[in-house]
Amino acid sequence: MSFEWWRRSMAYKTGFMKKEDVVEYEKDLKDKQVQDECKQCYEYRDWAINYSPIVIFMLQQIKKSGGDVSAKDIVCDVCDEWKGGGYHPELGVLLCQNRIIDKWHLEDTLAHELVHAYDDSKFKVDWLNLKHHACSEIRASSLSGECRIMNQFKRAAIKNFGRGHQECVKRRAVLSVMANPGCKDKEQAEKVVDEVWESCFNDTRPFDQIYK
């Protein structure tokens, strides 16, 4: 931190900054926070690509299935929506730098999006088909590790201990399908998720079992 930034920060926090300088400082502060978030996000991304077993495995499996996802296809940016990331078949993987809590959260988020990329390369998903979308969301939430038991404890989201994983997967899949432009409402999303649930939840490819 430069002396000038430190001086401005102290003046702002202690109320000694001139009124005409406050707006400019707050804009600069926001820009700095965005830059710091961006830098941190890319550091976490690079760590995951190089050291996370599940991310490394998924990148390998995507390549084996005919796809190609590398660091250049995984970008960090600010998101308005309350989500950790997203996948687009033509644009790649988005990591929401302003929603990422730590590198473990990014690992789960990236693994989730890479399951979508795997499904896209192996099964040629039609993302406007609600059943296709629901199936990939079920698999992504189940296989990425984001619904592992410890994450559920952190969120205090477990109602039924024995079925906590399944409840988490279903809840997250419904929310994602609701965001599909072809979905009318929550009731339709729940119906579609229920229709494909058994086959998609039990499909653990490319893993031998659910990653916990």
TrEMBL record:
Location of the protein in the cell: Mitochondrion inner membrane
Enzyme's top EC category: hydrolase
Entry annotated with the keyword Zinc: no
Keyword Mitochondrion appears in the UniProt entry: yes
Regions crossing the membrane: none
EC id: 3.4.24.-
UniProt GO BP: mitochondrial protein processing; mitochondrial proton-transporting ATP synthase complex assembly
Gene Ontology molecular-function annotations: metal ion binding; metalloendopeptidase activity
Keywords tagged on the record: Hydrolase, Membrane, Metal-binding, Metalloprotease, Mitochondrion, Mitochondrion inner membrane, Protease
Membrane topology: Peripheral membrane protein
Family: Belongs to the peptidase M76 family.
Protein name: Mitochondrial inner membrane protease ATP23
